[in-house]
UniProtKB/TrEMBL annotation, chains A, B:
Ranges where the HTH lacI-type domain occurs: 2-56
InterPro entries: Cro/C1-type_HTH (IPR001387), HTH_LacI (IPR000843), LacI/GalR-like_sensor (IPR046335), Lambda_DNA-bd_dom_sf (IPR010982), Peripla_BP_I (IPR028082)
Name of the molecule in the record: LacI family transcriptional regulator
Gene3D superfamilies: 3.40.50.2300, lambda repressor-like DNA-binding domains
Keywords: DNA-binding, Transcription, Transcription regulation
Amino acid sequence: MATLAEVARHAGVSASTVSYVLSGKRSISAPTRERVEHSIKELGYHPNAGARALASSRSNIIALMVPLRTDMYVPVMMEIAIAVATTARSHGYDVLLLTGEEGPAAVRRVTGSGLADAMIVMDVELEDERLPLLHATRQPTVLIGLPADTVGLTCVDLDFTATGALCVEHLAALGHREVAIVGEAPAVYERHTGFAERTLEGLRRRAGELGVRLLHRPCQGSYESMDGTLSRIFDERPGTTGFVVQNEAAIDPLLSLLRRQGRAVPEDVSVVAVCPEQVATQASVRLTSVAIPAQEMGQRAVELVVAKLEGNASGEQVALLAPELTVRASSGPAPGTA
Amino acid sequence: MATLAEVARHAGVSASTVSYVLSGKRSISAPTRERVEHSIKELGYHPNAGARALASSRSNIIALMVPLRTDMYVPVMMEIAIAVATTARSHGYDVLLLTGEEGPAAVRRVTGSGLADAMIVMDVELEDERLPLLHATRQPTVLIGLPADTVGLTCVDLDFTATGALCVEHLAALGHREVAIVGEAPAVYERHTGFAERTLEGLRRRAGELGVRLLHRPCQGSYESMDGTLSRIFDERPGTTGFVVQNEAAIDPLLSLLRRQGRAVPEDVSVVAVCPEQVATQASVRLTSVAIPAQEMGQRAVELVVAKLEGNASGEQVALLAPELTVRASSGPAPGTA
DNA sequence: ATGAAAGCGCTAACAG
DNA sequence: CTGTTAGCGCTTTCAT
């Protein structure tokens, strides 16, 4: 590979000049710049990443920690990861992919070695074991998801509390008074990932205000478990006319089982989902839903982290994205409503 | 951050000694090693990645190019990516995440800058535009998926031809004589990704040998398109008793529509899927299937690339993983068979 | 078994 | 506007 020095010689300038045309950190006369750029082309020069990192103590790499565990809805993670990668590139950064496997050790390794300039951490738990380290490091960090205590942290997430509220509001407005929540698998709640609880909280608070009765049931998402869950729901609350589902895997089983039971959607029961748009539009009934803005989350995370890196430390600590509910074919007036 | 020199001073040895205890490239007396290791602990020393890369011209990073496009089944991509990341770590490498977005330019950038020592490319197309560059670079590269011409390349993939054959064999053995193939979306075929064609080829060849009639229909995977596809299939071939599905999105619609039409699985029609285990076991009927060994593909890719990096250039060029068919509840004897 | 020292290729003062 | 130069922290001969 050609080196900076070779380019300099070829262009008849000094090394620093080449360096500066590359970085734009000082003004270069047009002719010089052109000569240098021409030499760069001609020699097929690419700056050496290691040397650059060593000299500037910036690797231009952002580390992204993705969960190893795969019980979350995978396409969302992937979409976030891809959004992070492409947004990062557009800001001149590459992305290092870390799995949760190494846990806190990965944080130490990356910050200690200068491998990455900053870090984006996905799937944060309420009491995440990486939190102390993230607090300690002065390396810019952004979390996707909210831990219990966000003091001193920068986080991005969908406003799940508002999401929950929005779902009941929609159903209440349609006259529904008994609503069942089909939630994530019990394991998700046990792990305290936060978002499930927050949705529930939003749901409950607003339901209380609107006089809607709520029944919450976690659900594995398989046909068997959905079958059981559904029986228990109608057993306990025969008057249930509205469903809020926050569990991608449960959507198809739910719709399918409702159909088999002869309950029409949306004539007999309405269904509102919290899921990616794609899932909502591809289900057997086009679902009224609150979208999970995966792309935007990844993008915002990068922008926040880049702002920190370039010193434009944005004031905001927690960026909560406002939920948007899209009405589709799965929700309608409660039976017996005007 | 502590530097190597500081560790050396702290331990009362020379810098090179510290370097050698780290790399193990020459023998160190036990006491010296201990002193050095102790100092490393005490100072919380982590070697600087940039300096190391510059001095050794090895970054210990493997680049992974994932497709930007999201019309493939995402969980498989994610599973491969995670397998790549964890396997790479276990060999001492980190993984740089590149999206297909930059296209060939990314290859140039990475090889040119020494950012990564090697590259794993996913979702290769038959006539991939990155191929010429990959051929040109002497940087170890492994493809996941097969291009049209694999000469001089190292590739990992499921043996889709054998997969297709396996599927018909299973159905033929059960007495099925008319089989329909529900394939990937037309776009997948148009893009010439190879795997779909190869499955089809295996299917056709073996079907010919076994006297099974085949009907192939691409399918978008939505309920609407599946509905249309299904009608056309039974229209054209009313005697169809077997289905082979290679399209994760089409599975739920297919099962659901068959049920609605009153065709029982597996009593009236048998269904064999080519999909990840998880999808097969979570469908409304537990599916007889050939698994897509995502993890193994990621792992093998890393192992091949690491072998190249460490000079144990394995002889094999194309690693085709043998398909395995697992019989579950969706396939049974053809109606009217003894 | 250990040290000394020469770079690796680039950035960023410091000088004009 | 451009050149000179001193490192950045580590690896790796070459010595001993």
